[in-house]
Amino acid sequence: MPISILGLSRLSDGSQKPQKLDISELDDIELLNPVTFDVMLTKVSHETFDAHVTGDVAILLNCNRCLKRFKTTIGLDFHALYSDDPVDDQWPIDKNDIDIEEAIRQEILFELPVLQICSEKCTGIKSNKL
Ligand SMILES: [Zn+2]
Fold it and tell me: Rounded to the nearest whole angstrom, what is the distance from the C-alpha of residue 73 to the centroid of ligand 1?
C-alpha cells in the first residue's frame, strides 16, 4: 500500500512524520506473520523525501542442506530516498505517493543469507542404509 507524502510536502524542509506500515504479504518472500514497520518520513527538500524503515520480519526459508523449511528473522533498519526526479538508487514519487513496500521487499531479498542453513548442526538429507 503506498504512503502519501501530501501532508508532509507542505511543511518546511527537515519536517518529519512517523508512519506505520502493515505488510501481510510480499512477492517471492514467505512471511511467517504480518509485520508492522515503523517508517519515519523526512522531507529533505521540496522534491526529495527520506523514509527510515525499521522492523523485524520473520520469514520461512528452505534449508540448502536438508531442504526442510525453517524460520529466520531479519531485522530491517534502512533508509530509502524518494524523489520527483530520481537518480542512482533513489525511488520515484508517484504523484504524492511513495511505494515503501517494494523498497522493503528488495531490502529483505538483499539481507537474505547466501547460504540458507536451518541449523549449524544440519547434516543434510539423511540417506537410508540399505
Ligand atoms: Zn537443514
Answer: 16
- Give the pLDDT confidence of 9-41 residue by residue, as tens digits: 999 999 999 999 999 999 999 999 999 999 999
Please report whether residue 82 resides in a domain: yes
- Grid look-up 542512482 returns 88
Is the pTM above the cut of 0.85? yes
CA 55, 88, 28, 71 torsion-angle sign: negative
What is the whole-number distance in angstroms between the Cα of residue 53 and the centre of ligand 1? 31
Cα(125) to centroid(ligand 1), Å? 8
Torsions phi, psi of 116, nearest 5? Answer: -100, 105
> Does residue 88 belong to any structural domain of this protein?
yes
Number of folded domains that form the chain:
1
How far away, in angstroms, is 37 Cα from ligand 1 center?
29
Residue-number span of the structural domain to which 39 is assigned: 3-111
Residue 76's pLDDT is 97
